[in-house]
Amino acid sequence: AQSVTQPDIHITVSEGASLELRCNYSYGATPYLFWYVQSPGQGLQLLLKYFSGDTLVQGIKGFEAEFKRSQSSFNLRKPSVHWSDAAEYFCAVGNAGGTSYGKLTFGQGTILTVHP
Amino acid sequence: NAGVTQTPKFQVLKTGQSMTLQCAQDMNHEYMSWYRQDPGMGLRLIHYSVGAGITDQGEVPNGYNVSRSTTEDFPLRLLSAAPSQTSVYFCASSYRSGFGYTFGSGTRLTVV
């Protein structure tokens, strides 16, 4: 069964510092991978996605993520964090095929706090 | 385009009552899903559908029913509400697996 682990429940960074949020997945084949962001009281917004090709993907708001098959990881990065990036971030894995295609599984989320 | 529309936004139920959470999308997406979000537990999949007439269970399906009679609508039914079903519920839709899901704004449900 597919699963996602986000090892960090809460991360605090200073504004202007770099950011890396970790995501590890478990899936039997090449997965579809996603990062979403959720501001307080809001729905989820798609930041970026990977399903084939270049393992470094660019997303909105200056975020990028790198797919590393050997490490089963899909870490999210941003070179310089802004106060408006404070939110909860979710990594998710989707089925490319098989009997459960269409199923998207989320990690537990990482809360990002940004200090001025 | 309205995207994914969920109604109601807030609801309070008494234990044992039934209700239906509505979800509609106008993007002609084949895939639709229901999630619940609880603090510290991320989003857990309740049920999902890959097309009209096709549904399957997710991680936490007990106490919930779904049906998909049209491409646009994917209602979630609570048969007999329990306090453990107090949560925020999100509906989402997607064109295909690799496209990512578009989420609605959520329904905050409290069962007393």
SSE diagram, text form:
The complex is a heterodimer of chains A (116) and B (112).
Chain A: E1 3-5, E2 10-14, E3 19-21, E4 24-26, E5 32-38, E6 44-50, E7 56-58, E8 64-68, E9 73-78, E10 87-94, E11 104-106, E12 110-115
Parallel strand pairs in A: 2-12
Antiparallel strand pairs in A: 1-4, 3-9, 5-6, 5-10, 7-8, 8-9, 10-11, 10-12
Chain B: E1 4-7, E2 10-13, E3 19-25, E4 31-37, E5 43-51, E6 54-57, E7 64-66, E8 76-78, E9 87-94, E10 102-103, E11 107-111
Parallel strand pairs in B: 2-11
Antiparallel strand pairs in B: 1-3, 3-8, 4-5, 4-9, 5-6, 7-8, 9-10, 9-11
Give your account of this protein's structure.
The complex is a heterodimer of chains A (about 120) and B (about 110). Chain A is an all-beta fold. Chain A is built from no helices and twelve strands. In chain A, strands 2, 5, 6, 10, 11 and 12 form a six-stranded mixed beta sheet that branches. A four-stranded antiparallel beta sheet of chain A has the order 3-9-8-7, with no helix packed on it. A two-stranded antiparallel ribbon of chain A has the order 1-4. In chain B, the strands form two sheets. In chain B, strands 2, 4, 5, 6, 9, 10 and 11 form a seven-stranded mixed beta sheet that branches. In chain B, strands 1-3-8-7 form a four-stranded antiparallel beta sheet, with no helix packed on it. Chain B has about 110 residues and is mainly beta. Helices cover about 0% and strands about 50% of the residues of chain B. The mean pLDDT of chain B is about 95. The radius of gyration of chain B is 13 Å and the shape is globular. The chains are: A mainly beta (about 120), B mainly beta (about 110).
